[in-house]
Structure formats: structure tokens, C-alpha cells
Amino acid sequence: MGFQDVVSAAANLAPYHLLSYSTLIGMSIFQSFTVVKTAHRVLPRPAFTTLQARLFPIYFQLQTLYFFLTAATFPPYGPVSLIKDGTSAALFSVAGTGVLLNFFVYGPRTRQAMIDRSRKAGAPATTTDEDVEEASEEAVEALNKSFHKSHAMSLHINLITMGALVVYGWRLALRLKVE
């Protein structure tokens, strides 16, 4: 194997694409269906709230990073090739919209609503050592409603994103040449 062969192999986007896609879908499924379910089952509510308030921003950051890496390494020529593949472009558009909505809108809203709800409801604060604030039942109910609405949107967007990624992965697997 000569130098040109090494350069040609390193320039091939397919291995990078497969690794970034595999990391993206694996991380998304593991976080959504294993970590959250296990933590919810075994941790007391204040600890669960604290863990989620710290984990989900990291999850949405990594999901966004790996989504863009996956799009940038779409074989054979990156985004140019992705745009030319209409079905994959549509799936990436759905997944990308979900990733960005959770990263910029619903993830932060849900996290803040969870923190506010914990403070007002008398549970330990999740991000600071500020004193827990007293609140009326109506205020706590409003915070609960806000949390549930943001959380439901984030959860459904995450499921739609993962659905688009799974369909894309199926199509990707069908394109593999196995000898």
C-alpha cells in the first residue's frame, strides 16, 4: 500500500460517516431508553432531577455535534452528496430540525422549568444553593404545567428525531456492499 493509497483511504468519508452515525444513534437510544429509565427507577426524585438537569444539556450538545458530523461526512462528498440524495436529505432535515429544537428551545426550557419547579415546590435546588422559595399551589401548578408541556415537546421531538435516524440507518445498511 503506497502513500497515494493511504491518502485515498483517509479521504474516504464512508468510515467517518459510519462511526459518527453509529455514535449518534447509539448515544440517542442509550440515553433515551436506558439511562433515563434506569435513573428514574432507582434514584429518589431530587437526585433524579439533579442528574437530569446536568445530563440533558450534555446529551443535546453531543447529539447536535454528532448530527453535524454525520451530515458533514455523508459519502462520497459530504453535504453536496447529501443534498443530491432527496430521501436522505429529507430524513436529515427532520432529524436536524429535532436536534436543533431540543438543543436551543425545548431542552433549555424543560431544564429551567424543572429547576424552577423544584425550587418552588420545596425540593432541593438543582443548580445553585439558593434558598428554596415558598409558592402558592397555583404557582406550583403553573410550573408543573410548564414543565410537562416543555418535557412532552422535547420527548416527542427526540422520538421523531430518532425515528428519522433509524430510517436513515436502515437505508444506509441497504447500501452496504457485503461480500
From TrEMBL:
Keywords: Membrane, Transmembrane, Transmembrane helix. Coiled coil: none annotated. The chain crosses the membrane at residues 18-36, 56-77, 89-107, 155-173. InterPro entries: TMEM205-like (IPR025423), Xanthocillin_Biosynth-Assoc (IPR053009). It is found in: Membrane. One of its GO terms (cellular component) is membrane. Residues 19-117 form the TMEM205-like domain. This is TMEM205-like domain-containing protein.
